[in-house]
Amino acid sequence: MIRCVIVEDEPKSRETLRGLINRFCNDVMICAEADGVISGLAAIRQHQPDLVFLDIEMPDGSGFKLLEKFDEIDFEVVFTTAFEQFAIKAIRFAALDYLLKPISPDELVVAVDKVKQLKSKKHNQKNIEVLISNMRPGALESKKIVLSTLEKIHVVEIDNIIRCESDNYYTHFYFTDKSHLLISKTLKDVESLLEGSSFIRPHKSHLINIRMIRNYSRDEGGMITLTDGNKIPVSRRKREKILEIINSL
């Protein structure tokens, strides 16, 4: 049985989420509900839940501010929010889960299933730390991202990513320190995750950090040389857009 706390300032939203949990998640028990940061903090400390459904924007502060008040996060978090691009980007960078309002029963079940599949809660502390760091003022390009491999969870600086290369359902990440990671996400998923950062996709198999471009050559139909010496082909249909981006640097 998963013990959960709902932290949501809108009574109607709390009622809706409560109803969905009771109807579709038989192995989730609601221990308490709260309507803000202060009451949520008290509820979590009193009931010590396995899972917290946490609203992002509340009258007495954000869900992120609530998390900052814990020295150690020993519970899973699923954020509930109306669409807010910057917050969601930070949540995704930290490899955490969220539900968009109005909440879909299917998405709720998937989120709960993810919580059940996690064997250890200890990793969550690192993810939350990345999230809180990324919510501080500053451009997302200078932030961190959580990348999970079969062996461990890695926290990396986005600025240190040189390029990403597709390998079927996996993606290779290459870094400025010459290290390399292979993660189980498609390049399309990685491109979506890094959207809005300093990355462009000049070819179907490659995603590159524009800050790492050394030069562009028209040889062989278009070729980008990166700071690590690697040469990345530019597809015909991407050539005009890539040249426009490079000329604007």
What does it look like?
The chain has 249 residues and is of the alpha/beta class. The chain is 33% helix and 32% strand. It contains eight helices and 17 strands. It has helices spanning 11-24, 37-47, 63-68, 85-93, 105-117, 123-134, 187-193, 239-247, and strands at 2-7, 28-34, 51-55, 57-58, 61-62, 76-81, 97-100, 144-148, 153-157, 161-167, 170-175, 180-183, 199-203, 206-209, 213-217, 223-226, 231-233. It has a five-stranded parallel beta sheet with strand order 2-1-3-6-7, sandwiched between helices. A five-stranded antiparallel beta sheet has the order 12-11-10-14-13, covered by helices on one side. It has a three-stranded antiparallel beta sheet with strand order 15-16-17, with no helix packed on it. The model has no long low-confidence stretch (mean pLDDT 90).
